[in-house]
Amino acid sequence: MMERSRFRTTPGLAALALAMLLAWPDRAGAQYTDPPAPAAYALKDVTVVHADGRRAEGVTLVIRGAFIEALGPGVEIPPDAQLLEGDSLVVYPGLIDLHGGAKYEFPRVEVDRSRVQAWSPPRDAQGFTPHRRVVDHLTSTGPDLRDQRRQGVVAGAVLPTDALAPGRGAFLIYRADAATPMELVHTPALGPVLSLRGGRGVYPATLFAVQAFYRQAFEDAARHRTIRAEYARDPRGVPTPAYDPDHEVLQAALDGELPVYFPVDRAEDIRRVLDLSERYGLRPVIVGGEEAWRVADRLKQTNVPVLVSVDFPKPERWKPDEEADTATAASAAELDPAVVREKERIENAYANAGRLARVGVRFALTSGGGEGDVHEGVRKAIEYGLSEADALRALTITPAELIGATHLARIEAGLPANLVVTRGPIFGKGSRVAYTFVEGVLEKGDTRSARSGGSDAPAGSLGGSWSVEFTAPEGSISGEMELDHTGDGFQGTVTTAEFGTFRIRGGSVSGEAVDFTLISDFGGEVVELRFTGTVRGDVIEAKASSPFGPVDMKARRRSGPGGGR
Asked: Which alpha helices (DSSP H) does 281-421 contain, by range?
């Protein structure tokens, strides 16, 4: 039997009704897809971990608009702020992925191979187009980067690596509300990417030819620069130099104005890159660097940074899970040298970052092009010797320094709110991302077990009957809630005697965090209130904000899976 609704005060009931009916008067009567975001968010009694490892406990943090409005112990929570549960949460700077996975589409150039001389092909056929820019062909918008944000990644670089010299990357802020690609862009053009990949059927097709080609290209760029300088000084007797956009980019690299990104993994190739860079005074950045640990001393000496991918090679012959039996593993190793070689290669890749850290090489950790699971990869690197403090630096302050945007890795009042909020240590096994803020816009964390390292669903289903009470500043209304829970989502209804039935939709659960939208219909006027809160055992507590103040909800289970009846 439904629990009879209670009236504490008539003004309280009216206040709650008005809050639900008039919460957003400019949109009264509209059919909403998403309710407006609250004016502010507040996290109370959280632990804040800074990029340099400093920790502060019992902190209250207020986010308004794009910025951190206030943080510290005892900060007063504004009445218009939506309170997110905080005593079990940890706040970190948002993660920065310098080899991320935003989408772009370079135009496909059709080349008539039958008319191309293999020894003297056009640059498009060679894949040598360092002037080309990802930003001019970017296709991703904010919604396309949701998976990255749900891992706590707030910004990243897009680096083209699919040709000899495919072009220049871009650095993006992963704004959830970016409706166009340009709204993501922070730095439109990074340095050129120069790989050691040969041309397809044309010069330079071999590694030896690629090295010779780059030396010639830089010599030509230097000569072109000299001719232009002489023409600018005195044009008499000097033919007007032609504009060459590729040489312009190489000249900027020769002058040290641009870093040069080299996607290489093998130690021998890293040495080749360092030799070329020393010869021409380049500022190299190693991308990938699977065997960078073998060249660590030289990288340290030359202060060359490495963007270490945590998208590690996948075992094919080696079966790590079967090595619990040491005798069996040893026997298998003796019988199959290929297993030994693969195991050694993969374990060296796992240990790469930790070895670089011990030598003092500057490095950042990356997803390897947006495909890898950052958290899973970092946990593996930590298992093989990387400290959690070094891992955090390699995904926050170090990439921020390399890209020239150090504010992205700082948690301070007045700065943009680029944060990741986790349940437990950020790289701990079983920890999960609760929220990510990108310039103040909230994104719920990833609930999939592949990302979190744990189970997605709460301890028990929320399905069944609940007694529920809604409280406004001056009074309360109570009734009965029926929920249907499937996977990590739920929907249902709330029934009251005075206002009839409200619908619940878009409900989701991640660990103890619960999020849902309550939809009310007063005389054809549809209004939505978004509630966020926690579920602990048989109790749900959540809060919504409105111009009339906060609306609290508390529900106790009456019956259903895991219920008390």
From this structure: 296-302, 326-335, 337-359, 374-383, 388-394, 397-403
